[in-house]
Amino acid sequence: MFRIGICDDEKETCKELKKLLEQYADFHQIELEVNMWYTGESLCNSLKKENAPDMLFLDIELISTDGIAVGSFIREELENMEISIIYISSKSSYAMSLFRTQPLDFLIKPLTSRIIEDIMNRGIKIYERKRQFFEYSTKGYHYRIPFKDILYFYSENKKINIVMKKEEMQLNGKLKDVAKTVPHNFILIHQSYLINLDFVEECSYDVMKMQNGALLNISQPYRKSVREQVMQNEWEKIK
């Protein structure tokens, strides 16, 4: 079951988008659950009480609590980085202001079956990827850590450190070997840092600020590729 939320104060837009999603599900033979909200307030209240959707189509121009505020609520207050947010709007002027909420995409109305096909294909790949694990053995124990829980890896004194929100673990190995096993949302920004783009709070030319407050240097050889990946995909996790 893949759960989708739609939040738009235009009921016809919600109805048409639900129809496109159901057509996609029928064609690809997947099971969808679609829930709709018509205000940002009702969506936020639901998210406090119920299981969050896997993917959320969120209108920016909601009348009171707008889509950007809702996105910030999801990421910052609920600390939910799992929902794939797709902003929808009739205007194109918002794109850069959405950076902090790390949306999967930014779509301009009207939506078409081709647009929905593309975004759903990517969203499902992300859904599957988030259920992947980083596995390793050390001191006679075997560990499985969900990639979605890892902020970044860093190497130090021939050790690899795995940084998560509330703990840090360590293993022997080389970072370049780990880089070959991770999903596409992990990128090298330095020979010592392998970071998860999902947990980047701010990005400048030479520094990444992670959500735990860590400031990680982007070394000169990586700056061009890092900039291209961030800007080209606009926080898209998987093409």
Question: Based on CA inertia axes, which overall geometry fits?
Answer: globular
Query: What count of structural domains?
Result: 2
- What's the pLDDT, averaged over the residues? 89
State the distance separating the first and last CA atoms.
22 Å
Oligomer: single chain
Major pleated sheet = 5 strands, parallel
- Poorly predicted residue ranges: 233-239
CATH architecture of the largest domain: 3-Layer(aba) Sandwich
Order of helices and strands: EHEHEHEEHEEEEEHEEEEEH
Number of E strands: 15
By DSSP (H or I, 4+ residues per run), the number of helices equals: 6
Using the coordinates above, name the CATH class of the largest domain.
Alpha Beta
And the CATH topology of the largest domain? Rossmann fold
Task: Note the beta-strand portion.
Answer: 25-35%
CATH superfamily of the largest domain: Response regulator
Derived from helix and strand composition plus strand pairing, the structural class reads: alpha/beta
Rg, Cα atoms, Å: 19 Å
Order of strands in the sheet with most strands = 2-1-3-4-5
Percent helix, as a range, is: 25-40%
Throw out a few tags for this protein.
OB fold (Dihydrolipoamide Acetyltransferase, E2P); single chain; disordered C terminus; 2 domains; five-stranded parallel β-sheet; Rossmann fold; alpha/beta; 239 residues
